Amino acid sequence: MTVAMCGDDAAALRLVGELVRDVGGTPAVRGALDRVRQLKEVAGFVIGLAFAGSDPHSAVPRVPSAG
């Protein structure tokens, strides 16, 4: 599972990235804190699709992780 993250503190992003990897995920930094509102809104949209029984990939294509 890819975990999208936003942040301004490189050390904090590295630490959280390590925690994500420790539980089997793939961290994906998607911007600074000024992007976090957009990330939250997209996450809500995708989670809503999944709970409604729709495939989120039908609306949001997969994007390869840069890390």
What does this structure look like?
This protein is α+β, with helices and mostly antiparallel strands. The chain has one domain. It has 2 helices and 2 strands. It has a two-stranded parallel ribbon. The longest helix has 16 residues, at 36-51. It is globular and about 35 Å long. The two termini are 13 Å apart.
Summarize the helices and strands and which ones pair or pack.
Blueprint: E1 2-5, H1 10-22, E2 26-29, H2 36-51
Parallel strand pairs: 1-2
What's the quick description here?
By secondary structure, the protein is an alpha+beta fold.
Brief descriptors of the model:
about 70 residues; alpha+beta; two-stranded parallel ribbon; 2 helices; 2 strands; about 10% strand
User: How many domain regions?
Assistant: 1
Total count of helical runs of at least 4 residues: 2
Give the topology string: H per helix, E per strand. EHEH
Question: What structural class do helix, strand and pairing data support?
Answer: alpha+beta
Q: Mean of residue pLDDT?
A: 91
Kindly report the spatial arrangement of strands forming the biggest sheet: 1-2
**End-to-end C-alpha gap:** 13 Å
- Fraction of residues in β-strands: 5-15%
Extended strand count: 2
Rounded to an integer, what's the Rg over CA atoms? 13 Å
- Helix proportion: 40-55%
